[in-house]
């Protein structure tokens, strides 16, 4: 069956769901999926420019694009995404849990509300969305999950306390899921990128950590392209960039005490009294 | 309604002319070479050099409005008197004839460069210039503005619009350098950006600017200056958006300010001794390396000026470039 655009009907087309798709890494992940001819279901917070992302992609790629503007920290909204896909007869083949919140400041200066929100978006939403779509994914001969963790997931990070911990959760969860689904058609990939300059503020923050941090930093477009290729080829845990890979290696071999000492020195400036930087990483809080 | 447009074949001029061609008006398009004016239905192309303006009256006498867009728009010229001849004397002559022939509105197209760098502030129309002029272009445009305001006091209905860096569809003459920069970056997949790429510039879409100018004809308050600014973003953000919109990874190489300055100095020497005309002077280098955020709120509230977001603007620009095969 063909629809009005002369394309195959949505049942036979591949579709990707990307959360946090309006800014930063998310919209480049959406772009890479569009290049590979996936239909898209894009999820992001209201008024963060999701419509623009849709317009730009729709102008260049002949795919169906659905947008859902919603707050993933609320459980009903996540259920809403599932029912939207069901009602519109969209079968997701590629699930990308990208939405997340980041920060860099002392724990005591975070509001209680922000802490809950971070856990709700980074952990709860990722788990819940994966749970809701897992049977759909399993039913297909080939499907993919890409969860976005972080290089920060490999160690405890002072001044990124609950962020790094939430990303450790994602990494452990995703790795376990990969093993569980080893003999099915579902490929599960964890992306653990180093610093990504998703916006001016992030770049400023990255640059303030010195030369090594600057050299390890990548643009969203580079990371997205590598990540999607990796996920579609069925790769496991993935950290792009040689310096980041080396850092990951250091976190394996250095004793925790030494790691913490180094990180404390590197991020000490974040602990000083300054306005709390609570830039939502993917604007999906 | 009949509108006289000067500088109709330039970059901004061609965008204004295209916008006017879609309006219910008659247009007299002035340029040095009338053959380059596109054959729009409502447009009469005429050749007239404002630096030798003997023939101006015969085109101006039955016009209601004037959009004075002509200007010598370069960052460098081996003969600086050219800037003053057109941007000051040309403007003076046009103003003189306009007040004589009772033109009902004159829009003077100027540049945000007249205010210059203001210590990282969001620059609005009322802020004075605090630094010395570094280019003859900015200085000549500033003198031009003062002339316009003098004629406003004498009763000529005028508005000044100041433009930032403009990109988008238009004749890619000298003024279209930003559009060419965008195209080159997309085609090659890399480009050089000054400093650490964090300096903020204002990037306006040519169609927005053209619409803003048209709105100033009807809604501009007597003697008012309006910034027709665009999106205030850093080079880093600019390239992030360009990567997204073009679907291509675009590498950026950051050139330290001091290095850029040295390169600019060498180019100045070359200009001086080998008589070349390259634009990258130290003045331009420092301009590119400083923050230039433009506040367009007056134009938004009083004229209804609208700013297209960069994603959409870049998308339209790239489509246009591909379509026009530039």
How does this model look, in words?
The complex is a heterodimer of chains A (285) and B (326). Chain A has 285 residues and is an alpha/beta fold. Chain A has one domain (10-271): Rossmann fold (3-Layer(aba) Sandwich), CATH 3.40.50.720. Chain A has 10 helices and 9 strands. In chain A, the strands form 2 sheets. A 7-stranded parallel β-sheet of chain A has the order 3-2-1-4-5-6-9, sandwiched between helices. In chain A, helix 1 (24-35) packs across helix 8 (220-232) and helix 3 runs parallel beside helix 4. Residues 1-10 and 273-285 of chain A have low confidence and may be disordered. In chain B, 42% of the residues lie in helices and 19% in strands. In chain B, the strands form 4 sheets. Chain B has a 7-stranded parallel β-sheet, with helices on both faces. A 3-stranded mixed β-sheet of chain B has the order 8-10-12. Chain B has a two-stranded parallel ribbon with strand order 6-14. In chain B, helix 1 (11-21) crosses helix 6, helix 3 packs parallel to helix 4 (136-153) and helix 7 (235-246) packs across helix 11. Chain B is globular and about 55 Å long. The mean pLDDT of chain B is 93. The chains are: A alpha/beta (285), B alpha/beta (326). At the A-B interface, helix 1, helix 2, helix 6 and helix 8 of A face helix 7 and helix 11 of B.
């Amino acid at each position: 069956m063909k629809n009005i655009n002369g394309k195959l009907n949505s049942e036979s087309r591949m579709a990707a769901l990307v959360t946090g798709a309006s800014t930063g890494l998310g919209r480049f992940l959406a772009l890479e999926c569009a290049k590979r001819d996936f239909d898209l279901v894009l999820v992001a917070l209201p008024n963060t420019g999701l419509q623009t992302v849709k317009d730009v992609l729709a102008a260049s790629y002949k795919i169906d694009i659905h947008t859902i503007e919603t707050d993933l920290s609320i459980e009903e909204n996540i259920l809403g995404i599932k029912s939207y896909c069901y009602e519109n007869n969209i079968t997701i083949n590629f699930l990308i849990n990208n939405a997340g919140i980041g920060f860099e400041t002392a724990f005591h200066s975070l509001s209680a509300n922000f802490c809950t929100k971070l856990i709700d978006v980074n952990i709860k939403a990722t788990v819940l969305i994966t749970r809701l779509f897992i049977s759909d994914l399993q039913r297909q001969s080939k499907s993919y999950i890409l969860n976005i963790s972080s290089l920060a997931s490999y160690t405890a990070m002072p001044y990124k306390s609950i962020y790094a911990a939430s990303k450790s959760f994602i990494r452990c969860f995703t790795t376990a899921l990969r093993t569980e689904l080893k003999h099915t058609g579902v490929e599960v990939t964890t992306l653990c990128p180093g610093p990504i300059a998703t916006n001016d503020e992030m770049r400023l923050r990255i640059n303030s950590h010195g030369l090594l941090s600057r050299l390890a930093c990548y643009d969203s477009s580079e990371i997205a392209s590598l990540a999607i290729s990796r996920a579609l080829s069925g790769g496991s845990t993935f950290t792009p960039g040689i310096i980041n890979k080396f850092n990951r290696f250091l976190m394996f071999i250095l004793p925790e005490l030494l790691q913490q000492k180094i990180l404390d020195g590197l991020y000490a400036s974040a602990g000083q009294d300054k306005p709390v930087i609570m830039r939502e990483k993917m604007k999906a809080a | 309604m009949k509108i006289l447009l000067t500088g109709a074949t330039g970059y901004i001029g061609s965008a204004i002319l295209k916008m006017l061609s879609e309006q219910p008006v008659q247009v007299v398009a002035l340029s040095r070479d009338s053959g380059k004016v596109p054959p729009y239905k409502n447009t009469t192309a005429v050749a007239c050099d404002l630096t030798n303006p003997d023939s101006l009256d015969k085109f101006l006498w039955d016009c209601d409005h004037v959009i004075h867009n002509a200007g010598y728009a370069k960052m460098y010229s081996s003969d600086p008197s050219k800037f003053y001849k057109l941007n000051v004397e040309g403007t003076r002559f046009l103003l003189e004839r306009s007040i004589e022939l009772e033109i009902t509105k004159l829009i003077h197209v100027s540049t945000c460069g007249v205010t210059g760098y203001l210590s990282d502030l969001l620059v609005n129309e009322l802020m004075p210039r605090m630094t010395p002029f570094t280019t003859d272009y900015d200085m000549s445009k500033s003198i031009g503005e003062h002339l316009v305001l003098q004629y406003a006091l004498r009763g000529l209905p005028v508005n000044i619009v100041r433009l930032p860096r403009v990109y988008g569809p238009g004749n890619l003459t000298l003024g279209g350098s930003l559009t060419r920069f965008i195209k080159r970056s997309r085609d090659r997949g890399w480009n050089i950006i000054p400093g650490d790429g964090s300096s903020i510039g204002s990037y306006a879409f040519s169609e927005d600017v053209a619409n803003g100018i048209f709105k100033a004809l009807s809604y501009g308050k007597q003697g008012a200056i309006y910034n027709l600014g665009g999106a205030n973003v850093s080079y880093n953000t600019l390239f992030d958006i360009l990567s997204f919109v073009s679907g291509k990874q675009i590498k950026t190489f950051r050139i330290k300010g001091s290095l850029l300055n040295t390169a600019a100095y060498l180019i100045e020497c070359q200009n001086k001794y080998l008589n070349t005309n390259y634009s990258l002077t130290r003045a331009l280098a420092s301009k590119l390396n400083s923050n230039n955020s433009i506040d367009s709120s007056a134009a938004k509230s009083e004229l209804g000026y609208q700013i297209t977001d960069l994603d959409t603007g870049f998308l339209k620009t790239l489509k246009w470039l591909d379509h026009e095969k530039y």
